[in-house]
Amino acid sequence: MDEVMILGMVALVMAGATLPAVVALFYPPVPPRRGSSPPRAVVVLGAGRRRDGDGYRLNTLGLKRLRVALELARERQLPLLLCGGAPGAEPLLAEQSEAALMAEVVRRAWPDAPLMLEAESRNTWENAVMAARVLRLRGIESLVLVTDQAHLCRATLCFQAQRLEVTPHAVISLPRRPWMPSAGALSQMPLIWREWLALIWYHCKYPL
Length: 208
Prior knowledge:
By secondary structure, the protein is of the alpha/beta class. It has a domain at 31-173: Rossmann fold. The protein has helices spanning 3-16, 20-23, 60-76, 98-109, 124-137, 149-160, 183-205, and strands spanning 42-45, 49-52, 55-58, 80-83, 115-118, 142-148, 165-171. The strands form 2 sheets. The chain has a 5-stranded parallel beta sheet with strand order 5-4-1-6-7, sandwiched between helices. α4 (98-109) links the parallel β4 (80-83) and β5. α5 crosses α6 and α6 (149-160) runs parallel beside α7. The longest helix is centred in the C-terminal third of the chain and has 23 residues, at 183-205.
């Protein structure tokens, strides 16, 4: 294979990676819903924190997930479970957890929101394990799970492993025009490959 052909193939792959319709094909497939009970809560997973002076704030992706979950919870009149700990922080600094930061945002938009917080988890598996405990204390076994499209497969598998009925709900990150080249579509590719690697790791480490 000569150099020109190799360069042509690379260019073709790169061009395809800018098209939302092509990028969408690479997302890990979301497992089908198990069970038929109507959801009784909306669960949203944190996506990380950023330093903000002496404290923290939610990152852009986390805010996007939260807005979608908040809209769903208000529309369906369901309680909202906010998931996310404070990796690397002292255990007593619960106010720095992602769940606490999300709660501040929710209360500004919906002061009477029926909130539950899970503020100890450090990864997606722990999100699911600890969220299941919080939900079962309230007799809840079915939920709508909100996270971004790339992460939804792994998150759903983790929650289903806790014997919960999960209705997956993706936060869409791809541009709306499927065949219009977009930097936004290209930016999804590293996240997608990371998720495929994470799925392999989780299948080896956890009982999915």
